[in-house]
Fold this protein.
Amino acid sequence: MSTVAFPTLPSRRYGGAVVTGMSEVEEEQDDGVRSLAARLVAGDETALEQVYDRWSALVHTYALRALRDAGDAEEATQQVFVAAWRSRHTLVPSPHALPAWLIGIARHKVSDVRLARSRDADRAAAVAAQPEAHAVVEAADEEVADRLVVRQAVEELPDPRRTIVFLAFWEGLSHAEIADTVGLPLGTVKSHVRRGLVTLHQQLEGVRRESR
Amino acid sequence: MSHVDPDRLAELVLAPDDSPSDVRRHVESCSECAVTLAALSDVRRLVGEESLVPAPAGVRDRVMAQARTRPPPADDVVRPLASTVPAASRRGPRIPVWAAGLAAAVALVAGLGIGRVTVPEPAAPEPEDPGSVVAAADLTALDSDADRGVARAVSVDDMVTLRVSARELGDEDGFHEVWLINVDGTRMVALGVLADWDTGEFQVPRGLIEEGYRIVDISVEPEDGDPTHSGVSLARGELA
């Protein structure tokens, strides 16, 4: 099992007014997701490939955290994307619909696997070893999904914001250390971190809304 | 004071000591900004722990291989499903999708009997139920064995009533319709709409079930006036 190599530190130094124009970038991304969803619904196989490439790590990590078994997570990931393809006509294209929809399918697969496990006498011991109440498990799943959606949202931030947010929140670097690392003024770094947090919040809210 | 820019609220989350006191004072008296602040704090709490783990190599190829597997030609499966709707008014994917579902159902039925929990027949009548259950079908999702409730055929006097009690059908737009599919995989009849979304009763001619119309299917139907099956089945099970 390997984790996504992240981030690739930019070799060039950033400077200037990098904070402007971000909302346009975000709108372009929204349009991109919407048209990707539309192509998927229309039955375009290359759209499925792109959807897989973009969200398979999200789905796989969710399944891995929820099922705590590499083999089951692999199987569930495969089933999620095949099921997504076969029920693609149920997807209503909107900016956040795709990840919300994929997580929804993954949630069902996870319940299926848990159900199968509880039916399987051989694994009774494994179930007994995880005596969490159903609601607790569900709440934990929700939180994992939220964390992963946020993580995915970081991936999709335009650089240098992506790198800055990653260094701030995942590497725990101070704003001054980040400024040194990426070669940007302290004020610019702070602004990126703030705007990054706002964007992550918007992404999470969007996916939660679509998940209903 | 008007609402605080989310950017300033983010600053308050990230560096509370550096935030101007007017922002803090506003949030204390403005529930809307307080909610945004709480949501931003929540996101701050959620970041920093997870990393994404790529799916193992090979999954992508298997997904694409399965996606490229075409369902059998529609003619092989649905030929006798006469439709009153002119073909031209149908949406393109309807038949193939339905055919795939039906083919899957037929395969499922053919391979059934092992590993499937079926309500014993005859099942004990429910206390408030005056009729006797003559057959029952465990409903499951199509792409998995997830429980979707049960359908019971109850015989009262000379009438057979199909009592559908489904669950977790999802909240997709449209309405839910109940069908009986013949085990020969080529014929089906519509029983009616599940008016309250997941439960309903339908009177069925006794002969129909005896003729082999034993697969209970629940579809979601768009409100498009097309009386044929949408091709989107939410649950299925065979009366036994």
Notes: DSSP finds nine helices and no strands in chain A.
